[in-house]
Amino acid sequence: MQRRARYVAVTCITLLTLVALYRKYAPLLDPYGSSEDSLVSLPDYAPESGSPSTRESSMGPLHPPAMSGDSGCGNISSSERRANATFIMLARNSDLKGALLSVRQLEDRFNRRYGYPYVFLNEEEFSEDFKRRIRVLTPSRVEFGVIPREHWFQPDWIDAGKANAEMGRMEQMNVKYGGNLAYHNMCRYNSGFFFQHPLVLKYKWYWRVEPSVKFHCDIARDPFLFMEENDKVYGFTLAVYEIPATIRSLWTHVKEFMARHPEHIHAEDNALGFISDDDGRSYNRCHFWSNFEIASLDFWRGAAYTDFFAHLDAAGGFYYERWGDAPVHSIAAALLLRKDQIHLFEDIGYQHDDWSHCPRTHEMWEAGRCLCDSGNSFDYSPDSCRPKWDALVGA
């Protein structure tokens, strides 16, 4: 009887050990889970009941425990401090495939170890299919919101005839998105309203994510905490030139704002040298590419930026021209912040469309297990403003 009891005990210990080893090392066999192709046939999850207009939360805690089986960047336990932060994606139901790809890459490269929540915003209700297929990719909290009509659509005080004529002219000139009214709406919304959405109000930090972007490297440190702990306000990866035809009068209105509100301008230590080559007389068209940005929501909600956006919005340039949120955000950050409050995330490998940022040092590239080729990074191509940023900060 004693021999049998010992045999049962040894067998149970062996089985428990094998289970523990499997849970620990199985992810190493396939650290990124399903292939891209598998996203087209994700299992269906039963939708939650109810159909609220501006808020819908998925199941799961705000900061769930880190997933087991980390592949080498260190597990972050649920007791570790996190910033009051979220990912924000503006998307339509037709963007589902691209949204899935972005979330999956973000989870694999970063968020499966940190558990930050997501907010998805749309000018109409998200479909149940969109919601359930996003939820299956992450144990983190996910919320889906509808953008208030007054924040999205062209306001009544805009001269519709003038706006339509200008959009038609830009379309004839082949100005990218110049004739697309929805794109004008989006640029204005991202410039002045996304941070006011009810689902976003509870957060202090955000990471903007767009459909169909790529994250080339593991992101081992928490960018939100880095920003918070180092007095940073705005973070970027790529810097590019704006299309001249989209911002014909933008700088004129910026200079008007500077003259009317000198109290908001950091005159001595700002980043004016990044956006102007002649001490502010003209705009050199450089801007941070805002499809990726990690930034403070309190900055956009503050008095300085509120005054800045109100001044630009009153000029009507989001519709009479095609002012983008990227130059608007960039000019605001360059003028209203100290330059040392703006941070380049060199270690975050990132791609949007054909333009890609790849860490330039071998040590950083290797530590991130990057898929990108540093030699093909957009940073030092003729269309990049990265050299101007490096010159400004002495990099």
From TrEMBL:
Annotated stretches, region: Disordered: 43-75
Any one GO cellular component localisation term in the record: Golgi apparatus
Alphabetized GO MF terms: alpha-1,2-mannosyltransferase activity
Keywords from the UniProt entry: Transferase
InterPro entries membership: Glyco_trans_15, Nucleotide-diphossugar_trans
One Gene Ontology term from the biological process aspect of the record: protein N-linked glycosylation
Family label: Belongs to the glycosyltransferase 15 family.
Protein name: Glycosyl transferase
